[in-house]
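Q: I have 216 residues here and want to know how they pack in 3D. Can you give me a structure?
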Amino acid sequence: MTIAQHLEHTLLKPEATVEDIMLLCRQAKEQALLGVCVNPCYVALARHLLSGTDVKVVTVVGFPLGATFSEVKALEAKMAVEAHADEIDMVMNIAAFKTGDYAAVVSDIRSVVEAAKPFPVKVIIEACLLTDAEKRTACRLVAEGGATFVKTSTGFNQGGATVGDVELLAAEAKKYGLKVKAAGGIRDAATAQAMLDAGAERIGTSAGHKIAAGEA
């Protein structure tokens, strides 16, 4: 499997235009990337642009804070699937997690997983805000909620993916049959490969086309 087949070419900036999404999808097609990751309002457009290809359309839910109502997250997921998203990346309720209300965290995840069925859900735990012990606990809760992946970061907080975090999450995720997505600050092939070597299955990056083309 080439590095391109692990890459989700990502554009989640609030100022992204239709033209930007068109370019993102064209780059993903040209480099045969695994997928694109776009905001919910662009799911239908991305699906149209990628029709007839194997490039997946991934979108985000409760992004980037994770602090909205579970019912709203579930509705976002349902609408995204109806617009033909292939995968959902949701943000964990970090406030509930930090408070110790693990039941609420699991319920929040499960509500999105149920709304997105049969499509996979990745849970962004925002690792830069968690201790190592909390990262391990988060993996367990992600599994209990029925998600498929644990994801390091939104890329909108104080830190992105690190090799150390990916190694820790991969070791813990293995216990639960989870996969790991590394995202946030991955801008070149060397860093992407280091994340894969550390145990990541997926890479979220805004430089996906450059990495696959050997330009970054």
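Q: Anything worth noting?
A: The chain has nine helices and eight strands. The radius of gyration is 16 Å.
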